[in-house]
Amino acid sequence: MKPPTVILAVDDVARSAKFYQDVFGWPVRMDAGVIVELELPGGGGLAMYLRSGFARNVDAAAEAVARPPVGDAGVTGTELYVPRDDLEATLGRLNDAGARLLSPLSRRDWGDEAAYFADPDGNVVAVARPWPAARLSAPAGGRP
User: Fold this and answer.
1) CATH assignment of 78-144, given 3.20.20.70, 3.10.180.10, 3.60.130.10, 3.30.1070.10?
2) Which of 56, 106, 120, 135 is in the most buried spot, having the most CB atoms within 10 Å?
3) What is the reported pTM?
């Protein structure tokens, strides 16, 4: 069975696909104009689907498909959590691609250090790696 594909409703497919390619380097698996699917490590996918086409698939008006509130503070209820070995380089690429910083890199309660950004459509993108102290102090078979 093929791994799942996460589909994001977006206003500009080309802009969104370029954002994720520039930041993560994921190759295009399929480009049908109104939807572009990128191949993720492990075989899963991330697709950016034009909001109006996404709405048609779920029998909704395009206006009914959630957009973040107007302004720099808005985000959708979607989060893409991406583990990275090259975290500092990824942070630089997110900044270069114009991602909006939501929460700076810091240690999180679950044992990772993570930073949170918004993509061009307000979807939340978190990049993370295990916190070194958590790896060193974890008891055998469990979390610290």
Assistant:
1) 3.10.180.10
2) 120
3) 0.85
